[in-house]
Write a structure and sequence with these properties.
The structure holds two protein chains of two kinds. Chain A is α/β, with parallel strands linked by helices. Helix content of chain A is 37%, strand content 25%. In chain B, strands 1-2-3 form a three-stranded antiparallel β-sheet. In chain B, helix 11 crosses helix 12 and helix 11 packs antiparallel against helix 16. The chains are: A alpha/beta, B mainly alpha. Chains A and B meet through helix 2, strand 6 and helix 3 of A and helix 1, helix 9 and helix 21 of B.
Chain lengths: 249, 477
């Protein structure tokens, strides 16, 4: 996972996830200040920063759950405000807590979300294959979600993204609260998605995970993206030092 | 897509213990009410037929006696029950279903179970109509309040909206899902209801029952659909499931309990009716005052003058018979005026109540339900009038018999026999036709359609215009 991002020559000309001077203000408070960002297919861009730095705001803007004050957010070349539904068909969203219907099984949850997202029907085998790719055992798939651990829910979330064949992934602190093994499995799944050509934007607190899974990291502070780094160019200790420097300054 | 959402909503609801329990209880209550209704209906119908036959036999086989005494002997008139009355008992419980008809008395109604009921019984008397009007809306609210607000709290709504599903499709899917689940809950009770109605109907009335039953079904469907629409709208806009539940429960309680009470008070204030005691006292006073001059000495003198004779014994007929009939007819004027006023007051109260249905759909639904079941006040009044006309005919036949039996002034001790009794026809009552009943409830129909169209327009507007972001967050107060 320490290889650098995919060579430029193999990339399609279009970046998948793009923000241009993206800004969100609530009254006088600026949650996000002129964010410029372009994430290409096969890239994992990790947003680092303290609580309130604007990471979740960025993701919510890309999902059009909130409307930007100014600037634009585009996915696959489409503005998310004017193409609210179309862009959602391209993107998969995995929040900190993948919330599922407690009274349905993992398989039923996946089937529901995947068929709503794609408008297609899935066979049981297809769904089980996606769940298997995401690392969920077959017997667990037919149990009700109320018995699931957090890691198992995240796996269903990944399976949703796989079934949707999402070109872009928006992840909001997906590994917080996972035990190290589950967290590691999650990173491997990200790698799988990346090799399938997804552009991934992940907000996280976890420097180690960012260095491991990310191709680039961006450090955010008070709504501004203050620093962007290639993870291949920097060691874990240096990343931590840089991060803390920005936080203290 | 809509079907997919509906299926998921239904699966979730049917797997939810709370919904299962509530639904089972409602189904049991509904089936219980229908079973009680059909048992009660069949028993009273049998009793009524038996009583009607035996009353007629008694009348025909009574011993020879003074014909006016026979008018005092009296007969019962029975209001035939429509089979739909087992669904909605209406006012029958309070106004009675048969009249005791005898000389000088109008509107003496018997069998008012409410009169003999204990306080507990009043609450225990849940008819199918009560369940449909009060409890089913509660179940609809229980099913719809978390539709959006609950998912919002759980976090699944964001997940759902992130799939790019149109809010409109979500609304339709959820509405379909809740309807299906409720359909499953109501289906057994509906089957029992249809069976009960078929069992209770004779061949001649079955067609009418089907027609009335179908209209009644549409009325209740419109009533329920409105609740579904309002429930979904509130759930989509309320920020929390708690708020959604509180708002919907407040609306439910207002509709089910506050509005009927308030409508009665408003109607009474707008069109006050005298108390039964005051009404009877007034009537008695008026009967005494108008009775003077047409009976006793004055009548005697005028009749003697008209026939150019000087004593009652010289008259070509029996004076007592004439005098009795004159007395009756004098009373009719007072009865007709006073009862007419009372009926007009009740009708005015009823119309006002129907219109108030615009604020509480229960009022309009209840009026239509009773009307179609033949158990509303208007149809009771119609029966009472028919019974009164019959009574007047009976009394006149008897008084005429006294008049013609023997000349002279004395009331004869013994006179008539079965040939006279048979001159009085049996009392056969025809309830007002469906068209007439419907005509009386145009306001209630209008109000119910307003409720249906209004609530659908509301939910459609919200579903069409709500953005994913508003739906994700709920409306800030």
């Amino acid at each position: 996972m320490t290889t650098s991002s995919v060579p430029r020559g193999l990339q399609p000309p279009q970046p998948m996830v793009v923000a241009r001077a993206l800004t969100k203000r609530y009254g006088f408070a600026t949650a996000l200040d002129e964010l410029d960002l372009a994430i290409y297919p096969g890239e994992v861009f990790c947003l680092l920063g303290a609580n309130g730095a604007g990471k979740t705001t960025t993701i919510n803007l890309f999902l059009n759950f909130i409307t930007p004050t100014s600037g634009t957010a585009c996915i696959d070349g489409l503005d998310v405000v004017t193409h609210s539904l179309a862009t959602k068909h391209t993107v998969a969203f995995i929040p900190e807590q993948v919330t599922l219907y407690r009274n349905l099984t993992g398989l039923e949850n996946l089937e529901y979300f995947a068929s709503l997202a794609t408008g297609q029907r899935f066979t049981r085998d297809q769904l089980l294959a996606h769940l298997g790719d995401a690392g969920l055992a077959v017997d667990a798939a037919s149990r009700r979600v109320s018995t699931y651990s957090k890691g198992m829910r995240q796996k269903v979330g990944i399976a949703m993204a796989l079934a949707k064949n999402a070109k872009a992934l928006l992840l909001d602190e997906p590994t917080s609260g996972l035990d190290p093994k589950a967290s590691n499995e999650f990173s491997e799944l990200l790698g799988l998605m990346r090799t399938r050509g997804a552009a991934i934007l992940m907000a996280t607190h976890d420097l180690f995970r960012a260095k491991e899974s990310g191709t680039r990291v961006g450090i955010m502070k008070h709504g501004r993206l203050v620093r962007t780094l290639e993870t291949a160019d920097i060691g874990h200790a240096d990343l931590e030092r840089l991060y803390l420097e920005h936080m203290r300054s | 897509m809509i079907a997919r959402i509906a299926r998921k909503e239904m699966t979730e609801m049917l797997r939810d213990g709370r919904f299962r329990w509530t639904a089972t209880m409602i189904a049991i209550l509904l089936i219980g009410a229908l079973t009680t209704g059909v048992t009660h209906y069949r028993r009273t119908a049998a009793e009524r037929d038996a009583a009607k036959r035996s009353a007629r036999t008694h009348w025909l086989t009574q011993a020879p006696k003074n014909a006016h005494s026979a008018a005092h002997y009296g007969v019962y008139a029975f209001k035939p029950a429509m089979s739909l009355s087992l669904v909605d008992e209406g006012v029958d419980r309070y106004v009675g279903v048969f009249a005791w008809l005898e000389a000088h008395k109008q509107n003496d109604f018997k069998y008012r179970p409410a009169q003999d009921a204990t306080v507990i019984e009043r609450f225990a008397a849940w008819t199918a109509a009560n369940v449909l009007q009060v409890l089913v809306p509660l179940v609809i609210i229980m099913a719809t309040f978390p539709a959006f607000a609950g998912e919002r709290e759980q976090g699944t709504l964001r997940q759902l909206l992130a799939t790019g599903v149109r809010p409109r499709i979500l609304f339709l899917g959820k509405a379909a899902g809740v309807s299906l689940a409720l359909g499953i809950l109501i289906a057994p009770a509906a089957a029992v209801g249809v069976m009960a109605l078929v069992m209770a109907s004779s061949n001649t009335t079955l067609g009418d029952t089907w027609l009335r039953g179908s209209i009644l079904t549409l009325v209740y469907l419109a009533y329920f659909t409105g609740f579904l629409a309002v429930g979904l709208t509130v759930s989509a806009l309320a920020r929390s499931a708690r708020l959604s539940l509180i708002l919907l429960l407040a609306f439910w309680a207002t509709n089910a309990f506050v509005a009927p009470r308030a409508a009665v008070d408003l109607a009474r204030r707008a069109h006050p009716a005298p108390s039964a005691l005051a009404f009877n006292l007034n009537m008695e006073r008026e009967l005494t005052t108008t009775g003077e001059g047409v009976s006793g000495k004055a009548l005697e003198d005028s009749v003697l003058r008209a026939h150019g004779v000087s004593t009652l014994d010289s008259l070509p007929f029996n004076f007592a018979g004439l005098s009795l009939q004159r007395g009756e007819e004098q009373g009719y004027r007072v009865f007709d005026k006073r009862y007419g006023e009372l009926a007009a007051t009740f009708a005015a109260q009823d119309r006002l109540s129907q219109r108030l249905g615009a604020f509480a759909p229960l009022l309009a639904t209840r009026a239509l339900s009773m009307g179609l079941a033949g158990t509303d006040y208007e149809q009771h009044h119609h029966f009472a009038e028919a019974a009164e006309m019959y009574r007047r005919g009976l009394v006149k036949t008897m008084n005429d018999a006294v008049r013609d039996y023997q000349r002279g002034g004395e009331v004869i001790a013994v006179s008539s026999d079965s040939t006279l009794w048979a001159k009085v026809p049996t009392f056969d009552y025809d309830a007002p036709a469906l068209g007439i009943v419907m005509g009386r409830y145009l306001w209630a129909f209008a109000v119910l359609i307003l409720w249906l169209v209004g609530s659908l327009a509301l939910v459609a507007t919200v579903a069409r215009h709500v953005s994913a972001s508003t739906l994700a967050e709920g409306v800030r107060p």
